[in-house]
Amino acid sequence: MIVSRAYYPAPIGLLKLEATEQGLKSIAWVEKWGEQIEPNLLGDAINQLQEYFDKKRESFQLLLDWSEAPPFDKQVWEYLLTVPYGRTTSYSAIAEDLGDKNLVRAVGGANARNPLPIVVPCHRVIGKNGDLTGFAYGLKIKAELLGLENPLSFAPQGNLFDND
User: Fold this and answer.
1) Which of 63, 86, 87, 143 is 20 to 30 Å from 135 at the Cα level?
2) Does 8 qualify as catalytic in the annotation?
3) Which residue has the higher pLDDT, 137 or 162?
4) pTM summary value
5) Would you say 35 and 5 are in contact if contact means Cβ atoms under 8 Å apart?
6) Whose CA is closest to 48, among 33, 35, 64, 71?
7) Are 77 and 120 in contact (CB under 8 A)?
8) DSSP secondary structure string for all residues of 31-98
């Protein structure tokens, strides 16, 4: 049961955070503010997100509530927590590391169901060939998050000859 709901106007859009008594349950991009429930309970999560966007935090120290998730999804999300800030991995590399290279689609599905994007960094998973693929909130936001973490590899480059 959701005991807290708060909104955070992140640089990439408005985020709705929800928590249960066990911990942070979901982060979702939304179009507009809605009803808040005990928003102060999510103050630490919002502060840590702000630090992330200010480039002062590379990982999160929050209690997470995955109590209703399937075991395989939890296994993939735990793996995602080990992918270093500013680095990427591929769906196939995760499948192989989990013991079965044939689980690539299952890994992709677990990534798509990740209820805690940014905190559980599914944006750090890219295609085997290096392409940005599969992010529930769009490849533009995925590229922005990767660019924030590693501007030399992922930030859009300006036109050197543009006089504007």
Assistant:
1) 63
2) no
3) 137
4) 0.89
5) yes
6) 64
7) yes
8) SS----BSGGGGHHHHHHHHHHHTT--SS----B--TTS-HHHHHHHHHHTTSPTT--EEHHHHHHHT
Cα 46 from Cα 64, distance rounded (Å): 14
Rounded Cα gap, residues 147 and 142, in angstroms: 8
DSSP state letter for 123: G
- Beta-carbon neighbour count of residue 111 at 10 Å? 24
| pLDDT tens digits along 7-63 | 999 999 999 999 999 999 999 999 999 999 999 999 999 999 999 999 999 999 999
Residue 125 CA to residue 133 CA, distance in Å, equals: 8
Active-site residue identified among 80, 103, 122, 148: 122
